[in-house]
Amino acid sequence: MAQLKRNPIYGWFVGLILLSILDVALYSLWRWRRLHRHDAVIVAAATRYGVPPSLVKAVVWRESRFDEDAVGSKGELGLMQLMETSATEWADSVHASAFIHEHVLDPATNTLAGTFYLSKLLRRYPQTDNPAVYALADYNAGRGNVLRWMKGAAATNSQAFLQQMTFPSTRSYILDILAKAKKYASTPE
After folding, report:
1. CATH number, position 143
2. Banded pLDDT at 24 (limits 50, 70, 90)
3. Helix 84-93 to helix 107-124 angle, to the nearest 10 degrees?
4. Does the pLDDT value for residue 105 go beyond 80?
5. How many domains in the chain?
6. Catalytic-labelled residue, pool 63, 68, 76, 102
7. Is residue 68 among the annotated active site residues?
8. Which range of residues forms the domain containing residue 101?
9. Any domain includes 128
10. Are 149 and 164 in contact (CB under 8 A)?
11. 88-122 burial, b if ≥16 CB within 10 A, otherwise e?
12. pTM score of the predicted model
């Protein structure tokens, strides 16, 4: 019986398949780690300030895609993209001495400060059917815009509020976060 010659293309093909499998496995591991490496600090902050962890995680996802070193164009920092005034308000509330805005680049500090602020915003709209919609609009577009959009039925009805919103990007921001929070609450990603 003649011995079959090994085709060099076959070796390359097998090698490429193995590299592809390894690449997919490494990407999946990297993605899982990126999505879950801050879970403990998110849950701790959410528990401390009475905010659903799924909502906090969804804000982190939308604001920074879990990048603790993220810096926004207006000076927002970290996981929850905190402005200096919001971070300082948290620092004052916990009597953090010698606080500087760059401290919020620490994931635990950022998540505590951001969740404190989100909690404050959620409590600001108790008369509404879904305080999260109004709080997220406030977090993204500011209180002045929220007050401008809270006219008529939109003062208490979140669907009317979303329709009255003049910033499509803020509407998209809110809907993205709410959908992701629902997903995080039902199944860990």
Report:
1. 1.10.530.10
2. confident
3. 90
4. yes
5. 1
6. 63
7. no
8. 52-186
9. yes
10. yes
11. bebbeeeebeebebebbbebbbbbbbbbbbbbbbb
12. 0.84
